[in-house]
Amino acid sequence: MSMNLFVGRTSELQRYQKFLTRESPWILIIGGLGGSGKSTFLSELAKQARADADTCLVSFDFAQKTLREDDLTFLENFSQQVDSHCDAKGTMEFRKSIAKGRSEIGKRVAGGNTRIGEIKQGITAESDAEVHEAGLTIEVGETSIRETRRQMREVAREKFYAQMKTFRVKRLVVMLDTCEWLNENTAEAGTARWGIELFKGLRSRMQSQGKICYVVMTSRVPLQLEGINCKIRLSRCCWRTLNSKQPPFRAQRKVEYESEQEGPP
To answer: Cα(94)–Cα(91) distance, rounded to whole angstroms?
Structure first.
């Protein structure tokens, strides 16, 4: 006996379908407390996307730690999900950039950190100056690793864009689950701005080819994306909250839908 898990969610599904017919807004955020059915609802949207021949679905769950911490892994995963819709040459060039990036980062990591005490040989100074200087540590290795990661990420991003230039499907829908980590005060959340910039650049490039990109996100808390939204110049950001104290799939949930206007319509 089959069970319809989405009884009472007709309005939400209709809003999603309407969202896909517009160029803007292009980011949709589905919010609600843990256990309210966000991920299951996202799975239903994914099922619909897969059934549409004009749509390519790409999905990520940021509960997977490596996707939050490793930009190359995120890009590689993205590429793998679209490679059947792209030319093989562009895909291969992207994979080479990932392999080279990991190799270069590995070399930097193997180099370790450099301390002033290790490079101070032959320097003559007053005794008090020596004591002061000996207490300093320059994390040259860590700085170098971060810079190498950034450089390799940028190289891979351009190769990814080149791969996506051969993307043959009319519409791309990117679904991002468990996005509340973006509000955390961590280095990974700080670099998430790069990910938003990635989507911005991808959307712009797809638009120039007559294609379109949408992003759907879920979060337990309202995401603090105001500054990022302004930077990306989104016309609106949609926040949809699924609130209910009822057990999942038993009662129709109360739906709140708000739009936030930014800039000219």
So the answer is: 5
98-144 pLDDT, tens digit each = 999 999 999 888 876 544 444 444 444 444 444 444 444 445 567 88
- Contact in structure between 19 and 213 (CB atoms under 8 Å): no
- What residue has token string 């699924």? 242
Asked if 237 contacts 229 with a C-beta cutoff of 8 angstroms, the reply is yes
Residue 265: cis peptide before it, omega within 30 degrees of 0: no
Structural domains of the chain, with CATH: 1-70+169-265 (3.40.50)
Q: Report the alpha-carbon distance of residue 58 to residue 82 in Å, rounded.
A: 7
Helices 192-208 and 140-164 cross at an angle (nearest 10°) of: 20
Report the predicted TM-score, pTM, of the whole model to 2 decimal places: 0.74
174: helix, strand or coil: strand
What gap in Å lies between CA 70 and CA 219, rounded to an integer? 21
